[in-house]
């Protein structure tokens, strides 16, 4: 099954937050599921980190690089899809 992650779920999953329910965690950890997010969600995540709205941004004093976030998304096995 394809799971389309919105910005909130993307943030919670990448920053290891405990706000995700057990059901969501189980779905995301099931290797039979394909995790996807949009380019817009990724842009929002990068922006929030860079302006210090997320813990990750505050830790690095607003110097979060887009490449670091993209690497984390790739390492998490999340595909980035375009709106086409």
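Sequence proposed for the structure above (84 residues):
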């Amino acid at each position: 099954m394809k799971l389309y992650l919105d910005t909130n779920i993307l943030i919670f999953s990448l920053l290891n937050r405990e706000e995700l329910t057990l059901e969501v965690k189980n779905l995301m950890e099931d290797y039979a599921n394909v995790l996807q997010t949009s380019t817009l969600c990724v842009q929002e995540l990068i922006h929030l980190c860079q302006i210090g709205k997320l813990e990750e941004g505050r830790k690095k004093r607003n110097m979060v690089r887009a490449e670091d976030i993209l690497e984390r998304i790739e390492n998490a096995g999340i595909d980035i899809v375009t709106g086409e």
